[in-house]
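G., before I forget:
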Amino acid sequence: MALLSDDRLLPAAPAQRDLARDLYAQVKDAPIISPHGHTDPRWFAEDAAFEDAAKLFITPDHYVFRMLHSQGIALEDLGVPRADGGSVETDPRKIWRLFARHYHLFAATPSRMWIDHALQDLFGLDQRLSAETADAAFDAINEKLASPAFRPRALFERFKLEVLATTESALDDLAHHRAILDSGWQGRVITTYRPDAVIDPDFEGFVGNVEAFCAYGGGGVSWDSYLAAHYARRRVFAAHGATATDHGHPTANTANLSQSEAAALFAEVVTGAATPGKRELFRAQMLTEMARMSVSDGLVMQIHAGSQRNHSDWVLARFGRDKGYDIPQRTDYVTALRPLLQEFGRAEGFHLILFTLDETAYTRELAPLAGVYPCLFLGPPWWFHDSYEGMMRFRRSVTETAGFYNLAGFNDDTRAFCSIPARHDVARRVDAAYLAELIVTGRLDESEAGDLIQELTTGLARRAYKL
Amino acid sequence: MALLSDDRLLPAAPAQRDLARDLYAQVKDAPIISPHGHTDPRWFAEDAAFEDAAKLFITPDHYVFRMLHSQGIALEDLGVPRADGGSVETDPRKIWRLFARHYHLFAATPSRMWIDHALQDLFGLDQRLSAETADAAFDAINEKLASPAFRPRALFERFKLEVLATTESALDDLAHHRAILDSGWQGRVITTYRPDAVIDPDFEGFVGNVEAFCAYGGGGVSWDSYLAAHYARRRVFAAHGATATDHGHPTANTANLSQSEAAALFAEVVTGAATPGKRELFRAQMLTEMARMSVSDGLVMQIHAGSQRNHSDWVLARFGRDKGYDIPQRTDYVTALRPLLQEFGRAEGFHLILFTLDETAYTRELAPLAGVYPCLFLGPPWWFHDSYEGMMRFRRSVTETAGFYNLAGFNDDTRAFCSIPARHDVARRVDAAYLAELIVTGRLDESEAGDLIQELTTGLARRAYKL
Amino acid sequence: MALLSDDRLLPAAPAQRDLARDLYAQVKDAPIISPHGHTDPRWFAEDAAFEDAAKLFITPDHYVFRMLHSQGIALEDLGVPRADGGSVETDPRKIWRLFARHYHLFAATPSRMWIDHALQDLFGLDQRLSAETADAAFDAINEKLASPAFRPRALFERFKLEVLATTESALDDLAHHRAILDSGWQGRVITTYRPDAVIDPDFEGFVGNVEAFCAYGGGGVSWDSYLAAHYARRRVFAAHGATATDHGHPTANTANLSQSEAAALFAEVVTGAATPGKRELFRAQMLTEMARMSVSDGLVMQIHAGSQRNHSDWVLARFGRDKGYDIPQRTDYVTALRPLLQEFGRAEGFHLILFTLDETAYTRELAPLAGVYPCLFLGPPWWFHDSYEGMMRFRRSVTETAGFYNLAGFNDDTRAFCSIPARHDVARRVDAAYLAELIVTGRLDESEAGDLIQELTTGLARRAYKL
């Protein structure tokens, strides 16, 4: 039995399926452009073997453990590390069995398809994961992981990664990226400048972060040295391959204060005692400052807005961030982005890529904005929406207003390395299915679809991210 | 001519239709679990014959008369009772003819399918309702209604109802439920604790309601006796079969005040003179109190949030509540539920079932919340969304993030008794169609679909509602 | 090669396609009812030849030039006139070539289908527009435009326009409409009363506009003469064929102040110095005043709410309004319309047609409102949503709750004359496809679909607009 049908995600109707198959075949083996994600550069710097199936598939993947947790399984029993030093399950086989026994919970979810893809294509398994098959799968995976062909760099090449962007804090020393560059290995692993820790006054340790950060600007804690530090660090990140910055904000609010107002606001937030309104205003102002710097240094700017993070204080205190307790919230773009766009919306060469967790913005705000402002690109369906239905909703919602060429292609945005080929494969299949749908309903010529499937797979991402 | 196709709502494409037919066949005759609704327990207590076709299908069903009214037909002419004592049409044949003459207004609406289902399956009619067929249908229905086989209890059994939950006010004496229990009849008709009349300061007669209610708590009007009254009444409801409470609030706001703050707020709202903000805060606080009591007594908690009720003062004054003038409004969950979830989101055995009239919350807030918090379940598409398209949107929106097992199955939420089999039949058909869609696109195995169609039909509801 | 498939937009599955083809054939050649749009009455008054392909297809059509601009093409190079008197490209062939070279940007957008439709059906072209085909197309179009058969009146008749409504400012002298009426030509071109320039305190020149306007009310600048002017002008517009008014507001807010409060508010806004809140309140109050007048004089009222206009100050200053920089925003109806609906929701003969750019309102607010209030009709999918996917989303979202008879049929809302047949053709195809979908899934009888396709094409628009 195959875990996955060769025709998965392609349309069921024969004429449409044939068209989709042809289109998919044209990009099935194309290189992977991964311009935004959260894999660990240490993997590629050190090229050490991955430890075991549980550490590969479960403990680092909040998509996986949040679903198990939602059905009452304790995060401790899944080996999710405690932030408070408490003990958790450490036996990977036990963790794997618990996961396998509950694998039915993932029916019809993207996680299931990603994991099945890896189990089948990467680890050669052909039995659905379950209590019965748990041990055999665990042993087979671990055996492979121990072999040289499953080291990070080997997998990178096997996955046909043309470029892989990781994301580092503005305070990161980029030692792993340095090591990759110095190693002589040809794999293109690049960094991305993510300054949330020094931009978001609500970030853990913000005041200390800013103090440390300003040292890069050559002076004490002042607005000028703070800005200089950003410029300096962006240069260093660019020297480590970065072509983009990334900004994870609760809202898409931007502001365009005068520099003296901004300096005064900075002075207030670095006390750590600013009001919530002032803290939000600072984040808003900093998006505009980041745009100004992008216009200057050419780094592509990404905004990932709209997650209400760490919804449970108890989980945050016990396990830390990124534990599945990040819930999307309604997100405005039309009013929020206006100050930034008024100033830089037509700036030559400026690329601003927008992401949303609020799908209502697709037709209402994002496609109309991207369909007129020269600087704007729409990122692919993000996080919960990186799925068959999510991608189809995105295509059907934005294409009619924004067309294809205001899009930034696909990106996987993952920390689960083995899911990268699976995620890109899903995207290619959905795009083939969507283009086939356009053809059979007379909205696109077959000859155009051939060009577009290439654009959607590689061309748009290369151009939007200046790769 | 049949009013309804045997294959209605199943997919049109042959391969998919065959799969869907097989799945539907597996649950077509399954018992009905109806864990939330608004039928009248008096029917089952007294088991008297229903009066006539108009009283069965038109005057109590706001789905029906609102549509006729929207096209300019006076509610009086449809026999909708006046709250102000004014006179209305009383000739059921006239009312029925008016309805039949305008039956084309219901084309492609769920009401049309529910009514056709009842006309065909229950009353053996095979002509589309119209001015021409009105009298024959009216006479045929009335003749059947007069027979013992169409008494409420007989229909209950004929509908294969395994359990039917009604909904009673916290002030209800539960006499009908008592009578059912005492009658020796085996039908399981249970109540649900609905305390809006004593929790919502905007409810008609709130101050008097609370005074009367506090007597159940053994004392005067105080926060302590008020809480004690809730505990006491919940126990009595549970003794009359209740496994759940239900809360109809304009928003999903929750609050978590200290008990002294809550007591002071209570003292203020029972004066009847609190500000709108305070009234909303009281509703919010009471959701958290209800959660606390559910954690203690095990009753499942339901929140039906987001209806702006009684949109027309004129209609409210003339005809009272529930007259079709209840309009959904934008509803936030992520911020609103946080106080309650912080406190009780992980509480052992606590079940909180969420409903929405704002479909934008499906992918943005509800599925992500249900996909991580152990206590949360998502109720089925509610009210306007209890329809083919509404159900399909729900499945396609929530499954990828919440999976199937964080759902509460189907419930019909109706006061139209004869629509119960029709509504469950629609749900079973849509579920079969959806699962077939997953299979043909390689997202689910056929063997899994067989389990899931059973879960969606009965299993999930039984577990979520602790039946 | 044909530019367009005969079966475009019809369902791909054979059984469904056959049904859809039959339905489409029944209305393919039906007359066009165009009850709302922005064509120029001067065309029909003067009946002069259109100048050239660029002036016909590009410079007046913000759908077209915004997309080109979004990919970095300067509006100046597209010949978009400068509001500030600056110079722009004037060579129509150059403009046309620039457009043709970038025609791939429109792949899968409605503009592409509209333009292809006109190129093929009207101008007899059969090659996809591109750099290579640009000149041949340009010459062929210009040659035809110079012939009598392509004059505005000839096209009006060729398009089978039964009625075409234009939209004029409350300050317009209606000279073109007068000329059409006086010319003896039989084409029915009617006006629509659009008083935004004298109702919206944020409109350019509002204070002067109101001063000029009050002269129609026979007195100085006062609330009474202002209202009298509205009544007077509405009468004049009606005498020039108008059956409707139209109101383009940023929100759907309505208010119902006392007349003395309204008079005081008027006195404040005409100073030009009122706060944003007061300006919004005045717009809100005026919607209710317009409803009152409609109840009195029978003019159908349209509200087009929810566009945040002129998003870029730079573009507004340089090119003026309507340059593609109008972005939808979240729009509430349930609370916003309540004051107006409380007062006039049940008024005999009152028709209020609602439009939205916020699709989330379809199932949540608009369908429930239209499904109960006698006065309400829903306008067709507007602006960005006037597309295959947009129309399908609309049908699938509103029909189940509002039915078909609370809808206002289709309208093209265009200033691009040649797109009118194309737009109505798209609507007819989508409706045929949708009805076929209802039939094959057992939600509608074939016999009903035949009536409904006629209603959707002509009947509903005629009745809603009192044509």
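The two ends of chain A are 40 Å apart (CA to CA). The CA atoms of residues 378 and 407 of chain A lie 5 Å apart.

More on Monday.
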